[in-house]
Design brief:
Layout: E1 7-12, H1 18-27, E2 31-36, H2 41-46, E3 51-54, E4 80-83, H3 85-93, E5 97-113, E6 129-141, E7 146-151, E8 159-162, E9 169-172, H4 184-195, H5 204-219, E10 223-227, H6 232-245, E11 249-255, H7 263-274, E12 279-283, H8 285-292, H9 298-319, E13 323-327, H10 332-339, H11 357-361, E14 364-366, H12 374-383, H13 388-391, H14 411-430, E15 439-453, E16 456-469, E17 477-478, H15 483-496, E18 500-505
Parallel strand pairs: 1-2, 1-3, 3-4, 4-9, 10-11, 10-13, 11-12, 13-14, 16-18
Antiparallel strand pairs: 5-6, 5-7, 7-8, 8-9, 15-16, 16-17
The structure holds adenosine-5'-triphosphate, xanthosine-5'-monophosphate, glutamine and magnesium ion (MG).
Length: 518
């Protein structure tokens, strides 16, 4: 079995596109990993990369505190591709000049290829090709030993290469990783296949084989628990672990009283009967709702729920003998967040954190998805035979409806929200929008407004509909749902859900808003 995969490292200089570079390379079935640009040379070499990409970034190389890399990196015999800031850094460190351009160049440009021998093999054969630019600095003078291999009307050096077969170095002023550069994937493939000599071995099937073997080796005969929500991440992590160690795995699902209609039964049905997982369902509705009584502050709600989850996992794992490991569905974006060279970001929300669990329980962590993006996890889920209803489930937060009933969480208010939420989901599905939308849900506002129903004055609750499109949940845009679909939701909610007389649609993007309201 193939355990080693060729790999490309992406050094991050803070570009908003760094993750995209890694994704494009992975789409070419070559494993790619992001590291902050600040890691020492020895660490980079320890990864044994076949090639290295230097990302773009917001800095200018001539500024005092501009991020850099050890110049020796360019002389290791590992092929390097510098993109935008990466190109400017190569130029700066190798004896060329980078200056502020008189005009920023942002958007579409026509690239004319002057050398099609390797990086641009098969690119722009119709004369020129469209590329996406986003820069304010430019190469004034190339470093010695480099030559231009493509140009645009504005940039005589839109791409360059070092003429040295043993120390290959390529640079692009434009961004091959974005969709606005239609032949960008070909350029990146040329880099990883032709120049770095990588083989396309990194498929989800090989990922399953590798992960299964690693989990088996790690766990031996010990027992393992997995907190299972029925969401994509924990479900795929559980299925993968189950394939590796079978009944040594026990899954725990906690009914925290703030789940959606039928959620618990559905999870039970799918996991116990269809997937034959060892599943324990803990009904802890009363414990959660008691502690949430009269709590209004969102952060307090989140912390209470987080602590409560931990308490129940702890209590239950004590009942199971010989548990040494805890499976978590941590994804690659979670990992990157904490390694970005700009450092971890401010706490906007305390995500109910199962991560608090291991230290206190002395359980060792197993995180079989920590190298994957969400869309890759979905492919993996399919590969493992999970049904579509799980693979394509929209994310649902651990604190559940407690952070969608704004203000005090009571059984009555939860019932109103549940009914509205069911309608939103039904209508989104009926309109065929469920997969294209990252999340669509209802929020119960803590205010009442005046209405008129059957000639009677009403003074009742407001439901907000929130629906967003997103790649990874980090940024999001409000979904442009057709008006007739919105109209149907509004009509049905007001007619069918007692206690609601008004529906509004949330038209905020993230940032500056967030996806959830609390
Ligand atoms: N009701 C629950 N019972 C047990 N564990 C839970 C529950 N809700 C959340 N968790 C745990 O918290 C983790 C984080 O939840 P999160 O919603 O981010 O992931 P997910 O539910 O697996 O996937 P998705 O993001 O698609 O909803 C889950 O992976 C799971 O381990
Ligand atoms: O498991 C979770 N525990 C949480 O505490 C939590 N808070 C938000 N979310 C989900 O994360 C994504 C981003 O949400 P925000 O824009 O509201 O921060 C969205 O997909 C949210 O649904 C959570 N998931
Ligand atoms: N996208 C980038 O990498 C920009 C690099 C540099 N800050 C410039 O404006 O030219
Ligand atoms: Mg979830």
């Amino acid at each position: 079995m193939e355990l080693w995969h060729d790999r490309i490292l992406v050094l991050d200089f803070g570009s908003q596109y760094t993750q995209l570079i890694a994704r494009r390379i992975r789409e070419a079935q070559v494993y790619s990993q992001i590291l902050p640009c600040t890691v020492p040379l020895a660490t980079i070499l320890a990864y044994r990369p076949q090639g290295i990409v230097l990302s773009g970034g917001p800095s200018s190389v001539y500024e005092k505190k501009a991020p850099s890399v050890p110049k020796d990196l360019f002389d290791q015999g590992i092929p390097i591709l510098g993109i935008c800031y990466g190109m400017q850094l190569v130029t700066h460190l190798s004896g060329g000049d980078v200056v502020k351009a008189p005009h920023r160049e942002y958007g579409r440009a026509e690239l004319v290829i002057d050398d099609r021998s390797d990086l641009f093999k098969g690119v722009g054969e119709g004369g020129s090709t469209v590329v996406w630019m986003s820069h304010g600095d430019r190469i004034e003078r190339m470093p010695p030993g480099f030559r231009s291999i493509a140009h645009t009307g504005n940039s005589p050096v839109a791409a360059m290469k070092r003429d040295d077969h043993k120390r290959r170095l390529y640079c692009l002023q434009f961004h091959p990783e974005v969709a606005h550069t239609p032949e960008g994937s070909t350029i990146l493939r040329n880099f990883v296949y032709e120049i770095c000599g990588c083989k396309p071995t990194w498929t989800m099937q090989s990922y399953v084989d590798t992960a299964v073997k690693q989990i088996r080796d790690q766990v031996g005969k010990d027992r393992v628990i997995c907190a299972l929500s029925g969401g994509v991440d924990s479900s795929v992590a559980a299925a993968l672990t189950h394939r590796a160690i079978g009944d040594q795995l026990t899954c725990l699902f906690v009914d925290n009283g703030v789940l959606r209609v039928g959620e618990r039964d559905q999870v039970q049905k799918t996991f116990a009967s269809q997937l034959h997982l060892n599943l324990r369902i803990l009904d802890r509705t009363n414990q959660f709702l008691d502690r949430l009584k009269n709590v209004i502050d969102p952060e307090r709600k989140r912390k209470i729920i987080g602590r409560q989850f931990i308490a129940h996992f702890e209590e239950e794992s004590k009942k199971l003998k010989g548990v040494k490991y805890l499976v978590q569905g941590t994804l690659y974006p979670d990992v990157i967040e904490s390694v970005s060279f700009r450092g971890p970001s401010a706490t906007i929300k305390t995500h109910h954190n199962v991560g608090g669990l291991p230290a206190r329980m002395r359980l060792k962590l197993i995180e079989p998805l920590r190298e994957l993006f969400k869309d890759e996890v979905r492919v993996l889920g399919k590969e493992l035979g999970l049904p579509d209803e799980i693979v394509w489930r929209q994310p649902f937060p651990g604190p559940g409806l407690a952070i969608r009933v704004l203000g005090s969480v009571t059984k009555e208010r939860l019932a109103i929200l549940r009914a509205a939420e069911t309608i939103v989901e039904q209508e989104i599905r009926a309109a065929g929008l469920y997969r294209d939308i990252w999340q669509a849900f209802a929020v119960l506002l803590p205010i009442r407004t005046v209405g008129v129903m059957g000639d009677q004055r009403t003074y009742e609750n407001v439901i907000a509909i929130r629906a967003v499109t997103s790649l990874d949940g980090m940024t999001a845009d409000w979904a442009k749902i057709p008006n007739d679909v919105l109209g149907r939701m509004s009509n049905r909610i007001i007619n069918e859900v007692k206690g609601v007389n008004r529906v509004v649609y949330d038209i905020s993007s993230k940032p500056p808003s967030t996806i959830e309201w609390e």
